[in-house]
Specification:
Blueprint: H1 9-17, E1 21-25, H2 28-31, H3 51-54, H4 57-62, H5 64-79, H6 85-96, E2 100-104, H7 110-113, E3 119-121, E4 124-131, E5 158-162, H8 171-183, E6 186-190, H9 201-208, E7 212-216, E8 229-231, H10 235-246
Helix pairs in contact: 6-10, 8-9
Bound molecules: ligand BV8.
């Protein structure tokens, strides 16, 4: 699908002059890799559940096997996918900019697979597993098999290493993200419906600090009216065009 994207010269100039650029990504940046966005992840088999029912401590307590199988299903989907041109363009842009930080709400690990390094995973990672009692990592080769498996040390259920609704985000992750949003010159909101807090607060912090806000999303969101630049295109088309205009790196 060729989507011609027009990138304002002023955005390129602003980016070149930016001493600190923050990229916040959501499920939309992985959509072109074939990973359903969070809102439409509930297709078919899972359509009778709401994410907020499964991605919660209560949901896991109520039916650990159902929740475990949902995460195994998602891991299967992600394992079959690859980073898309949007992920690779973000890596290239990070190499070409003075200082940049990539903050993601996604748990699919595709930014790392695309080679991005300055990265904060606000909501954890699908491929990490924890003991549900004391939250230490449990490796697949050490757990006691089951659906869900059990911790080899205390026999508690193993859970996915993601942040569920109603759970605190890792304090260092959200604090670093807030600091970056407070001091950046340019803040990108890419592929996110900007509905989930506290991640959605980062754009508000950036606006408050007077940063130039750029939204990349084929659909309007609650942020669109406040953004200085809005690219109403898929990130897999918009980000490579911005990277191309910024020049080789
Ligand atoms: C917290 C990991 C407090 C798990 C996720 C009641 C009780 C408790 C809390 C709350 C409550 N009411 C509200 C809250 C706060 C709650 C919240 O914000 N709820 C929302 C629903 C209103 N937040 C929390 O619970 C957070 N914790 O508040 O703790 C606390 C305080 C003290 C003590 C204890 C607790 C935790 C939030 C993290 C939840 N975990 N993920 C998992 O993945 O299974 S959130 C999950 O959903 C994702 O990580 C992501 O963050 C979010 C989905 O958002 P998006 O990424 O934006 O995806 P979405 O599908 O919505 O949108 C995709 C966008 O892409 C669209 O706009 C679309 O147009 C666009 N798009 C599509 N294609 C493309 C594209 N864009 C570009 N290119 C394309 N090709």
């Amino acid at each position: 699908m060729s989507t011609s994207v027009t990138v304002d010269d002023r955005l390129i100039q602003t980016l070149r002059e930016s001493a600190s650029t923050v990229f916040l990504t959501g499920a939309g940046v992985s959509a072109e890799s074939g990973i359903p966005t969070f809102r439409d992840a509930m297709t078919g088999l899972w359509s009778r559940y709401r994410p907020e029912e499964l991605a919660t401590p209560d949901g896991f307590e109520r039916d650990p096997e159902l929740v475990w199988r949902w995460y195994e299903w998602r891991r299967g989907i992600v394992s079959e996918t690859d980073p898309n041109p949007g992920h690779h363009a973000l890596r290239r842009m990070q190499h070409g900019l003075t200082t940049s930080l990539l903050i993601t709400q996604n748990v699919d690990g595709l930014h790392q697979r695309a080679g991005s390094e300055q990265l904060i995973e606000l909501h954890g990672n699908l491929f990490r597993n924890l003991c549900s009692r004391d939250m230490h990592p449990v490796m697949t080769e050490e757990w006691v098999p089951g659906n869900p498996p059990r911790c080899p040390r205390c026999d508690s259920l193993v859970r996915p290493g993601v942040v569920w609704f109603g759970e605190m985000l890792p304090p260092d992750a959200i604090e670093s993200a807030r600091q970056a949003a407070m001091s950046c010159d340019v803040f990108f909101s890419i592929g996110t419906s900007a509905q989930v807090y506290p991640a959605a607060q980062l754009a508000e912090i950036a606006l408050g600090n007077g940063a130039t806000v750029v939204e990349v999303n084929p659909e309007p969101t609650t942020l669109t009216r406040y953004a200085d630049f809005v690219l109403s295109s898929p990130s897999g088309a918009a980000l490579p065009e911005i990277a191309r205009r910024l020049g080789p790196n």
